[in-house]
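Usage

Read records sequentially. Each one opens with the input sequence:
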Amino acid sequence: TLTNNYMPLLRYRIGDLVERQVTPYATSYIVHGRARDAIRDGDGRRVTTWAVDRCFDGVDGIVHYQVHQERNGNVQFRYIPDGSGPGEQLQAIVAKLDALLKPKSSITVESVAKLPPTPSGKFRLTVPAES
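and closes with the structure output:
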């Protein structure tokens, strides 16, 4: 666990962004994702995969998604629909992403049959402009 002082889970730098939350009765941690996957909002502030993922809380109709930021600041949101897709919830997702990322232009939305994996076979939810 993250609270075991004698055998810590993290022994070397792996690039994860973790937020420690200390309360009077407990300590908890939020794993925000990999530093290399963080994107920037229109003001240049870092936006983590965790923050983007929260835009999808309570949403049905999406199997998987990817938010890709281009060098010019444009944002592409691709998703694999589940069944008939997210329906009216799609507008709410785009509005939340727009408020979070503050892109210079409107977010491009695309329903796709599949998303490309990385060479390791893993899927990235957020892809920054540098990638």
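Summary fields computed downstream for this record:
- The CA atoms of residues 58 and 67 lie 18 Å apart.
- The chain is about 15% helix and 30% strand.
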